[in-house]
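Chapter review: from sequence to fold.
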Amino acid sequence: MWIQALLLAVIAVVLIVFVRRWYGVRMQAGKRIAFFAFLAVNAWAVVRPNDVTWMANRLGVGRGADLVLYLLVAGFALATLNTYLRFRELDRRFTDLTRTLAIREAELVNRERGLLESQHEHPAVLPGQQH
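The C-alpha cell string follows.
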C-alpha cells in the first residue's frame, strides 16, 4: 500500500507544480484539460487497480498493466509528435528572423559604404518624421 501513497503523492506534486506555474505554461485549453484528465485517470488507476483490469478485459486486453502500457505508448507517440511540430515551427521562425536580420545588416553596411542611398538620417527615424 505504500506504493499507492507514493504514486498519489507524485500525482499531487505534479498537479501542484502545474497549477502554480499556470501563468508560465503556454498550452492550449484542450491540452490543459487533457492533462488534468490524465492526472485524474492516473489517480483513479492507482486507487482502484481492479477497475483498470476490468476496463482492459472489456477492451480485449488481457491485463490492466498491458492496457496502461499501450496507453502510455500512444501518449508518448502523441507527445513526441507535438514536440516535433513545435520545434519545426520554432525552426521556421528562427530562419525567418535570421533572414530578416541578415538583410537588414546588409542594407546598413551597404548604406555605410555608400552603395545604397540613405532613405533618412537615422535608421530609427521613419521617412517624413522630424527628430
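Two observations follow directly from the output. The chain has a mean pLDDT of 85. The radius of gyration is 27 Å.
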